[in-house]
Design a protein that fits this description.
alpha/beta, four-stranded antiparallel β-sheet, 14 strands, globular, binds adenosine-5'-triphosphate
Length: 329
């Protein structure tokens, strides 16, 4: 279990983290999502005890990271974006080294063998880390986080730089790990959160702007769905047909990418699926769809939306509080 209470971090005048609180239970994998500079790394560094907080605290299990950082850290496995690997060691040598460093008390061989199995590196255990692919290095990074069997795992951008197959494999490993542990997964990638996490925390400008089910965040995305479509025919006749479709919010012309056609980005009104009306309208106009791709909403769109909602709620709450105060006065 992790409980973060009113955590604040100021760097001089910069309020990087501005009073955030949340609780994550054992068996939960929670996505920690936010744009660049939102405060994700600062928060994770405070939770893992690498950075002191200006105020507030974090509990790892029952242990307060400020009161007993050594005991709290024993319960945390951390996979930073760049795993701290010694490439001249073999996988086995490296994990033995981490075992010693963490002063683990569990039976050495059985514990490390179990981790090798769990992250799927048994067959490369005697290879030098420098000779491993990026995907396997990432697995070794995960393995070092698991040494000592910590209840809490904090994973920073665990799939950055991996190829699609490696991404799927690492996501499956993380899902398995999450069954018995408390996992925080920091990422920029929305589909990643939706693939792995049940719950998502969204941070922006140092505050939590959403805390809910990952699928619900998906529904908000659906609300502002965008399609990239390649359509035959000339823009002058096709664009008005597109604009006339019920539920069409905007039509952006992206230009000619294939001779005799044009690419468009179509944004539908919230909650409306325009794919079928689009098909019928174009058929009627004698045009054909050569390609159609869901462009989704950009994460930036979602962050802007959630942040605006959070600010509206805050200012309403603020007004209510000040009104009450006036009444009281
Ligand atoms: P990214 O995804 O780009 O890593 P992030 O969400 O992890 O971003 P943080 O690195 O936590 O964001 O940064 C939060 C804010 O605090 C940013 O505006 C950043 O510029 C600022 N910041 C971070 N570290 C320092 C520091 N040591 N001194 C001053 N400002 C800092």
């Amino acid at each position: 279990m992790i409980e973060v209470r009113d955590l604040v971090k100021h760097y001089g005048n910069k309020h990087a983290v501005n009073g955030i609180s949340f609780r994550i239970e054992k068996g939960e994998i929670v996505g920690f999502l936010g744009p660049n500079g939102a405060g994700k790394s600062t928060t994770m560094n405070m939770i893992t005890g690498y950075l002191s907080a200006t105020s507030g605290t974090a509990l790892i299990g029952d242990v307060d990271i400020l009161e007993d950082p050594i005991a709290a850290k024993r319960n945390i496995g951390y996979l930073p974006e760049q795993p701290p690997l010694y490439v001249d060691m073999s996988v086995r040598e490296y994990l033995n080294f981490v075992y010693d460093l963490k002063k683990v008390q569990l039976p050495r061989k059985a514990h490390l063998d179990e981790i090798f199995e769990l992250v799927g590196i048994t067959h490369v255990a005697d290879r030098l880390i420098r000779n491993l692919s990026k995907g396997y290095r990432q697995r070794v990074g995960l393995a070092q986080a698991l040494v000592g069997d910590p209840e809490v795992l904090i994973l920073d951008e665990p799939t950055v730089g991996l190829d699609p197959i490696q991404i799927i494999e690492i996501r499956n490993v993380i899902k398995n790990l999450g069954r018995e542990r408390t996992v925080i997964l920091s990422t920029h990638i929305l589909p990643e959160v939706q693939a792995i996490c049940e719950r998502v925390l969204v941070i922006n400008n140092g505050i939590i702007v959403a805390d809910g089910r990952a699928a619900e965040l998906g529904a908000r995305v659906d609300g502002v769905r965008r399609l990239n479509v390649r359509i035959t025919g000339d823009v002058k006749s096709i664009a008005p047909v597109l604009r006339a479709i019920d539920g069409m919010k905007s039509v952006d012309i992206l230009g000619e990418k294939e001779s005799g056609s044009c690419d468009y980005q179509l944004t539908s009104a919230p909650g409306i699926d325009i794919r079928q009306p689009l098909f019928h309208a174009l058929e009627k106009a004698g045009a054909a769809i050569l390609e159609m791709r869901d462009a989704g909403a950009s994460l930036e769109d979602i962050f802007v939306k959630l942040t605006a909602e959070a600010e509206t709620a805050k200012s309403k709450g603020g007004r209510m509080r000040s009104k009450k105060k006036e009444e009281k006065d």
